[in-house]
Amino acid sequence: MLNKYARAFFTRVLTPFAAFLLRRGVSPDAVTLVGTAGVMAGALVFFPRGEFFWGTIVITLFVFSDLVDGNMARQAGVSSRWGAFLDSTLDRVADGAIFGGFALWYAGNGDNDVLCAVSIFCLASGQVVSYTKARGESIGLPVAVNGLIERAERLVISLVAAGLAGLHAFGVPGIDILLPIALWIVAVGSLVTLGQRVVTVRRESAEAEAEAAAGAGAAGAGAAETGAAGTGAAGTGAADARSQGGESP
Ligand SMILES: CCCCCCCC/C=C\CCCCCCCC(=O)OC[C@H](COP(=O)(O)O[C@@H]1[C@H](O)[C@H](OP(=O)(O)O)[C@@H](O)[C@H](O)[C@H]1O)OC(=O)CCCCCCC/C=C\CCCCCCCC
Ligand SMILES: Nc1ccn([C@@H]2O[C@H](COP(=O)(O)O)[C@@H](O)[C@H]2O)c(=O)n1
Ligand SMILES: [Mg+2]
Ligand SMILES: [Mg+2]
């Protein structure tokens, strides 16, 4: 949802900054790398110590690099497969650090086994949600669904809650409850999203196989009519189509 509605706004806002970085000779890859390093530092230095306010401030300063790098690549006309790979791979690293930081806090001084487990669940389910799309697309399916909670939602829900919960350390009473609530929302939302994506891939996969089988059947019938092929051709073609669908990029 955010990807659909907020991206255009942030593109407009960040375009001048992206242009400025390009003029200074900064590359999109450098922004991707520095942004990820900053998010990791914010999450792994501050969150395990329960310093959620400062951790969120540092992460917020760096996380928007994920919108700037692509913007720079597009402005400079250097969007590449390598850049897409680097961007998506480092997204997974940054997400791992954020939810890993929460887990480390609850495993240590935060002392809450259930919330530690929920944080680990958020980490793992978020990675799997992203993987479903990447793997589905790699086997040639459109994966035409985003689902309830994409990466932007996972980040906004958990970071807004963490930033506000961090105000507890400055004397705001009761506000620390927001982080556990957000983690539960992200956990349940990620599970729903995973279900939505798996169902979509299963449906698209069945449709693709049916289409391939129908195509192979038609080709076999055509060949039989012209006498160019035996009766086994349709079955072999369908089997080939199935194995192609399963392994080709
Ligand atoms: C009192 C003060 C308290 C302090 C509060 C601090 C407030 C700050 C809190 C939060 C700010 C969080 C901002 C998070 C912004 C996230 C931006 C971002 O990185 O979005 C990335 C996203 C996806 O980009 P990609 O295409 O590069 O990534 C793809 C994606 O990862 C796919 O994953 P999947 O979705 O499938 O799981 C992968 O499949 C794919 O491989 C990968 O390429 O970009 C967007 O979605 C664009 C939209 C961004 C919208 C950002 C909205 C920010 C909104 C509000 C923040 C301000 C809130 C202020 C609240 C203040 C509260 C007091
Ligand atoms: N170092 C990079 C980073 C990104 N790209 C390209 O941008 C796309 C992602 O755009 P975002 O707005 O989501 O950042 C990505 O698929 C690449 O095409 C790049 O080339 N180099
Ligand atoms: Mg990016
Ligand atoms: Mg990204």
| Record field, number of beta strands | 0
Ligands and ions found: ligand LH5YIG7M, ligand L45E5XJ5, magnesium ion
Classified by CATH, the class is Mainly Alpha
- Specify the number of helices: 10
Write down the overall mean pLDDT. Answer: 91
- Which fold name is given in CATH as the topology? Four Helix Bundle (Hemerythrin (Met), subunit A)
Q: How many structural domains does the protein architecture include?
A: 1
CATH superfamily grouping: CDP-alcohol phosphotransferase transmembrane (TM) domain
Contiguous uncertain segments of 5+ residues: 231-249
Helix content: over 70%
Distance between the termini: 28 Å
The main β sheet shows up as: none
- Element-by-element helix/strand order: HHHHHHHHHH
Mind telling me which CATH architecture this is? Up-down Bundle
**Structural category:** mainly alpha
The shape, in one word, is globular
Rg over CA atoms: 23 Å
